[in-house]
Amino acid sequence: MKYKLLSLVPAILILMGCQNEKTLTEVITFKPSDYEVIFIPNNYIDETNQVYMDAMIDLKAEYPNEFEEAKKEAKNLTDLDSIDNIKGPSLIIVKNDTPIAQLSGEKAKKDIMEQLEFTFGENQKKDVPN
Known about the structure:
By secondary structure, the chain is α+β, with helices and mostly antiparallel strands. The chain contains three helices and five strands.
């Protein structure tokens, strides 16, 4: 009986490990000042993903410092409160661990750029002495 219980322990640990992997999502993040920007791409390459990526690439040329810490990572999105249903690629802007803006699905490149520029502009306002 003892051996049967001991043989179940590794199986349970393996199952728990697999469960945690399913909650992790590969995202691209960068952290302009007090914000965290999270881009959640589709799991496949399509035109909608490309619009978000093009917007970020264009803005990187204009705001290189804001993208210095850009990286790809696995993130547990269930840790973020108040995320609306994610349909298609999404861009989430977080401040103090709370999502404050979200763009999801098909959006015009101009809309994506405006949202990010607004976030970058808020950062630059903080940095300018009065």
